[in-house]
Design brief:
Layout: H1 6-16, E1 21-25, E2 29-30, H2 70-73, H3 79-84, E3 87-90, E4 97-102, H4 105-114, E5 119-122, E6 127-132, E7 138-142, E8 145-148, E9 154-155, E10 165-166, H5 169-177, H6 204-219, H7 225-240, H8 248-260, H9 265-278
Parallel strand pairs: 6-10
Antiparallel strand pairs: 1-2, 1-3, 3-9, 4-6, 4-8, 5-6, 7-8
Length: 281
Amino acid sequence: MSTTLPLLHTALNLAASGVPVLPLRRGKAPFGNCRNCLGNACGGRPNMKNPGPCRCPGICHAWAAATTDPAVIASPAWGPKWRTAAAVAYHPGGAGVSVVDLDDADAVAWARTALPATRTVPTTRGEHWIYRGTMRSANAVRPGVDIKSTMSYARYLGPGTGCLADLPDAVRALAVKESRPARPTHVIAVTTLAGGGECRHRTPVYLERGIAMAEQRIAEASSAVHATVYRTFLAVLSTHGRCGCLTDAHVGRLFAAAQAKGETPRHCTDAWANARSSLGM
């Protein structure tokens, strides 16, 4: 395949420098899994450090598909995707870096006072601050701030300016804070059963199966991701939202599944709020 396609050319150059790459479709989302990988039937898991026994030649399992192998990047399986791709993405953790994704001007202003200077890359609405070193990825660690490193992907928007600084403790500390309830919209106000009866949904197996099925439904969405996320949130809330079963941990799992498909924390919050409103909750 010709390497004159701009995105393919960029991807091959990045791969040659040791940066694992993959194409993104419109909406800044990875291309959907192939039929053999739908529902992780191949044994792959997009939320694990290794996609498992999957040896699919396609661009499956989101960030886990990122590679530095030029034969794969320009292969017949990948080649047609570059013609319709909207952007090049890379796996920061695989490149040995972490990206602090600052989504708006307020987040950038905060970073300039709270974080050490490092290489910066302008984005559509804010900036990417890139540090040398890896950590676990975390979304919505504070308003307008995500961390993309291991088990995540980031858009490649150019080489940026400035010298890479080592990953500071101030950034690592943000991921620790992320495990605490950060947004009021994540806290679910529900009513208990009249008469204090035992809720059948509280059985661990029943609830776990429901959350797992919701995660799978989102992961398998190959198109209309926004609509799929909303309908899934609506289904979960209609079944479990009024009996006190759901916890912030459950909601966090659903949000993580949606964000793995390219949804932003803001989109997740809006979809959740709209689903609750539709159900009168």
